[in-house]
Amino acid sequence: MAWYIVRRFLQMIPVFFGATFLVYFLVFSLPGDPIQALFGDRAVNPAVADQLRAQYNLDQPFLVQYFLYLKNLVTVNLGNDFSGRPVAEVLAQVFPVTIRLAILALLFEAVFGIIFGVIAGLRKGRFFDGTILVASLIVIAIPIFVLGFVMQYVVGVKLGWAKPTVGAEAGWSDLILPAIVLGLVSLAYVIRLTRTSIIENLNADYVRTATAKGLSRPRVVVVHILRNSMIPVITFLGADLGALMGGAIVTEGIFNVPGVGQRLYQSVLRGEGPTIVSIVSVLILVYILANLLVDVLYAWLDPRIRYA
Amino acid sequence: MRFARTSKIVGLAAAAALALSACGGGGGGTDGADASAVITANTTEPQNPLVPTNTNEVGGGRVVDLLFEGLISYDASGAPVNEVAESIETKDSKNYTITLKPDQKFTNGDPVTASSFVDAWNYGAAAENAQLNEYFFDSIAGYDEVSAKDSKKKEMSGLKVVDDKTFTVELAQPESDWPLRLGYTAFSPLPEAAFQDMKAFGENPVGNGPYKLAGDGAWQHDVEIALVPNPDYTGTRAPQNDGITFKIYSGFEAAYQDLLANNLDLLDTIPPSSLKNFKTDLGEGRYLEKPYAGNQAITIPGYLDEWKGEAGELRRKAISMAINRPEITKVIFSGGREPATEFTAPVIDGYDADIKGSEVLKFNPEEARKLWAEADKIEPWGDKAFTISYNSDGGHKEWIDAVANSIKNELGIDAQGKPYATFAEVREIATSKQLEGALRTGWQADYPSLYNFLGPTFGTGAGSNDGDYSNKEFDAKLREGLSAKSPEAGTTAFNEAQEILLQDLPAVPLWYQVRQVGWSENVDKVDTAWNGVPIYHQITRK
Known about the structure:
The complex is a heterodimer of chains A (about 300) and B (about 550).
Chain A: H1 2-29, H2 34-38, H3 46-55, H4 62-74, H5 87-122, H6 127-141, H7 144-158, H8 176-202, H9 205-212, H10 217-246, H11 249-254, H12 260-270, H13 273-301
Chain B: H1 4-15, E1 38-43, H2 58-67, E2 72-74, E3 80-82, E4 85-90, E5 95-100, H3 114-125, H4 143-146, E6 159-163, E7 166-170, H5 178-181, H6 192-196, H7 198-203, E8 211-213, E9 219-220, E10 224-229, E11 243-248, H8 253-260, E12 266-267, H9 278-282, E13 287-299, H10 309-321, H11 325-331, E14 337-339, H12 365-378, E15 385-391, H13 397-411, E16 414-420, H14 423-431, E17 438-444, H15 450-458, H16 472-482, H17 487-504, E18 507-519, E19 523-524, E20 540-541
Parallel strand pairs in B: 1-11, 15-16, 15-17
Antiparallel strand pairs in B: 2-3, 4-5, 5-7, 6-7, 8-10, 9-10, 10-11, 12-18, 13-17, 13-18, 14-18, 19-20
Helix pairs in contact in B: 10-12, 16-17
Subcellular location (chain A): Cell membrane
Protein name (chain A): ABC transporter permease
Pfam families (chain A): BPD_transp_1, BPD_transp_1_N
């Protein structure tokens, strides 16, 4: 197992470099001149533009730019964004916020998704099951920004239960409403996955055996059915963590959350290579680690799975 | 141009109206403010350190404007008022002697002296400092030398310190409206401490304005910027509240929701998605609509063959008369724009709605068709499409499409918008003169003067002359206006210059910008200035 994890970590290295190279290349290929854009509609004094280009290495060919970036990365110097702020500082500010948001959303979808999914699965074809199926279908069908604006208006403005936008500190309690919106669509998927999986396992031989042995119903459900039904759900949740972190642009926008998605969106518009690549690199790491965690969890959930 | 970015940021919100309204921070920490009279207002994250010569966008501009006091300021109507300047004197519009008021201080206790201005301006103009507002100093003698590539020279020859309270300015050529520019934040003084480490200074700027930062680190990136009144301030913009806390949003939708929940006191732009219903949402007495010094146009480049010569001139007029401005401003902007009648803006001193030739900006489909047919006789248009290039991240799509449709319907030619993904992309094409059709252009005045709308955009070889327009008579009229002995004579010359523009139509003016501002139930006395920026210092808490 330990060797397996080490090998997985080694595999991360080419993935990381390949991905950063690709992203850097994409940013480099973006049309438009970011320095010109800094000046708005004004013509730029070429001397000043050259000065700024040199400052951000924009006057170098692509490969040189990329290697300069890598060189800086090794010395833990991520460079500055176009407003002169160190990118490292930007990362240190936006990631904790988005991590809190993603964890809350993940908890929300995992806890409620599995509970509702289990109940629906055990009561297949009954009223609760039908209601949950219809409700989850509706949630999947509605675009997330519609859900976001409606929740913001109803809960934030009309009812006043929460602030319509996230507070300055973006603390745990401020992020509950956005996290619910962010997790809603995945919640629907988790419910459906859990339900299907449970139904499948309900008829399995080992469940019949467990029941025949005289084990209590809760023990059969939790230890035998649920544990064996979790593999597809865990796979989904693991992949979803990455999606929640990188894909929260819409939700972060609606609720004015100063997180990763917002910053990334702005940086793409401004063509800030170092910021984009740094943020994406961290996202890639998160994604890879989440996948590793999922694979390790498999072995724990199903002892038949062995890694060597 | 300080608000160049606004269109982009407003646009961001609009492009994003449904999907991506963007974010920032805000909320939380400032709620205890109710006890004292602190006002919360929206802004965007400043795109640069808060250094006056390097802040050219609205998010940082409004903060810098409150932190620093220049030689003059503008009152609500745009008229100049002496602030740090005791007097600004000239006999020939070329050599100016500036005397400062006594006992002016920065908030760190340093005195504001003639050197505070001269050093700051030299810093701003020098190429090695790469300041985004460097072009503001281009009228001063010696600018060409310090702004050249790899220049070793760091001081403009036109600036001379006479004594602590006096300095002289020599311009490269006479410019009668030059003193009017001095209220722009780029001309603010800087304390000596700034020059030791400008980057650190930009994080915690020390100024001489009506407000100061509420301590070190009062600018929390992407979250808020807290300002408190400067107790030593003696100018005309004395704060009527206990401070302004700017909450940072990068879109207006989220800010608008905060405004509805009384979680934000002042929102200086109503998001496009709420234009139709904001009046009922907020109710009477909680919003304001006021024109300001900005306009929107489509520029038709002079370097394109089909727009040159007599046929080109007829076509330009036909295009202009085929655009139903009143209808579009009503339908697309819910009345939030005013159809243009010339090339400047109504709030500018000297504005004239009836300049000779302005009928070309009125909707007149019959005449438009007639002129287009005449042009076709000279040189057939064929089945080309008339395109309007624009940045699709700027919220312009709706009205560009409406303008294109109006042209298409009235002239029977193919007309369409040509979107580019980002502002950067469309600017690159415009500045490299690669346009194949018309271009969306907006202009917001840096200082309240007719010349500021005409010179930089239509003067031969001028910085923002995207259409490459060049007309010797027009240039001569501009020079005549600049060297005029009185403002009235200047106005006459500038408006005569506009007659030439109305004849040549290097750009087709569309409408004037109107600022829509909303405020919470907790504040009072909200108004906007000539440039559309709220007059923050006079807002009071109920």
